Amino acid sequence: MLINFKELPPEARIWIYQANRPFKEEELQEINSEIEAFLTAWTAHGSSLKAGYKIPYNRFIVFGLDQEIASASGCSIDASVHFIQSLEKKYNVTLLDKMNVTFKQGEYLAHKPLTDFKNLVKNKSVSENTIVFNNLVNNKEEFTHNWEVPLKDSWHNRFL
């Protein structure tokens, strides 16, 4: 069951898929339709899942799941991963590679492999105050308050 992301409770489970490039406007129209169709039909053991989504910065796909009615099962999580893989192929974009970092550089977003990001920290090209996207958040509350954080306040601080 598709619901508005804003209606998800703070404890809703979150999955974040970051793209290696921003989506184009025409892609976003199609992707929104495809995500809505997927989430409308998404089930776990025959029960509809109450889920919403958003696409911040035209670069991240965020699924949220209200687990009060039904929780995601292994099969339903597999279905969501297969869906994301289909978007990767169709739009020639990387969404599942967790070894990349997206961070703000002024008003722009930069996307780098983790090894390159470590070098940027080492060379002082990014600082402890650089805003990074912590895609390891688990629920909507964490997403709201701890997704866009200074490097010093994220798991990325191990590179300082």
Report on this structure.
By secondary structure, the protein is an alpha+beta fold. It has 2 domains: 5-91; 100-159, no CATH class. It has 4 helices and 9 strands; from the N terminus they run E-H-E-E-E-E-H-E-E-H-E-H-E. The chain has helices spanning 25-41, 74-91, 114-122, 140-146; strands spanning 13-18, 43-44, 47-48, 50-54, 60-66, 100-105, 108-113, 131-133, 148-150. The strands form 4 sheets. Strands 1-5-4 form a 3-stranded antiparallel beta sheet, covered by helices on one side. A two-stranded antiparallel sheet has the order 2-3. A hairpin with a 5-residue loop joins strand 4 and strand 5. The protein is globular, with a radius of gyration of 16 Å.
